[in-house]
Amino acid sequence: MKILFFSIVCACGYLAAMGQGRPVQVAPPGETGRRITDDGLLGNYFPASRRGPAVLILGGSVGGLVPETNRAAVELQKEGIGSLHLSYFRAPGQSPRLELLALEYFDKALAWLRRQPEVAPDHVGIIGGSKGAEAALLIAVRHAELKAVIATLPSSVVWPGIVWEGSTTPIGSAWSEAGKPVPYMPHVPFDASKGGTMAENYAATLRTIAEHPEAVIPVEKIRGALFLTCAEADQVWPSCPMARQIEQRLRDKGRPAPVLLAYEGAGHGSFGLPMPQGDPRLSAGGGDPERTNAARADSWPRAVSFLKTHLAK
């Protein structure tokens, strides 16, 4: 029986279905943004037209700079919210592996963003999706100054990294801090020959959470307001069970409840600006395409309203 470490293969099917493919995309910033390479960073910066709030935006395991995220950043720009869409792996000059990526890189990005003349430094938040949501929550735990945190299709724990080209050995933690791996949930063995899904393996591993308390993200340390979205038919990972674990941990620790939007029948692509009907990306990651797009149409304006409310404080 052929047993694979699941983290070796977990990204490939979903990302291929999303049409991101290889090589990684590094979308240009367009007319209203500019490319940032300061301080070893790589991103597209979309300043607001006047001094005000801003957010750091992190994509998921696709890596690079995705055009769809740029489009969302431009819409935030129109709403008076600046943003830095940050690449953290797979782009030229960056690690091809989402493994042991230093959280200090995100510290530098936040510091850069807060220094910009268009940004009110006390009115900054963060948005992360999927693997980027995992990162966003870890960053928010470490940055009490963040006023608003949006984690879409989130994780309640730290997972192993993702290596697109595959690996013959187990993959370690996705993240590091001060040169040491951030504790993570090791995947249970996965028998690829039986055709199990990514979400099933993540769910099976999640049932061992009591054995790995050190891997749980201590979301109770987040001081900013928290906004979560999840998809009940997510076939990438169990975003709704993990979102509810976050909600329950906050409740158990006496912290304010997050906003939690759970979408029945929607898949992993259920956050962002609505897409044209029939867009193949709506079929990736599980769920019904129409419900996935409906979730996008419902959650996006709520997220913008959330940012306007909490970044103004």
Brief overview:
The protein is α/β, with parallel strands linked by helices and 313 residues long.
How are the secondary structure elements laid out?
Blueprint lengths: L11 H6 L16 E3 L6 E4 L5 E7 L8 H12 L3 E5 L10 E2 L2 E2 L1 H12 L3 E11 L1 H12 L5 E5 L9 E2 L11 E3 L2 E2 L16 H9 L18 E7 L7 H14 L6 E5 L25 H23 L2
Parallel strand pairs: 3-4, 3-7, 6-10, 7-8, 8-12, 12-13
Antiparallel strand pairs: 1-2, 2-4, 5-9, 10-11
Give the strand order of the largest sheet, numbering strands 1, 2, ... along the chain.
1-2-4-3-7-8-12-13
Strand-and-helix sequence, N→C?
A: HEEEHEEEHEHEEEEHEHEH
Structural class by secondary-structure content = alpha/beta
Largest sheet: 8 strands, mixed
Overall pLDDT score: 92
β-sheet strand percentage: 15-25%
CATH architectural type:
3-Layer(aba) Sandwich
In CATH terms, what is the fold-level topology?
Answer: Rossmann fold
User: Helix tally?
Assistant: 7
- Spatial separation of the terminal alpha carbons: 57 Å
Low-pLDDT regions: 1-21
CATH superfamily: Alpha/Beta hydrolase fold, catalytic domain
The Rg value, from CA coordinates, equals 18 Å
Structure description:
By secondary structure, the chain is of the alpha/beta class. The chain has one domain (6-311): Rossmann fold, CATH 3.40.50. The protein is 28% helix and 19% strand. It is built from seven helices and 13 strands. The strands form three sheets. An eight-stranded mixed beta sheet has the order 1-2-4-3-7-8-12-13, with helices on both faces. A three-stranded mixed beta sheet has the order 6-10-11. Strand 3, helix 2 and strand 4 form a beta-alpha-beta unit. Mean pLDDT is 92; it is low at 1-21.
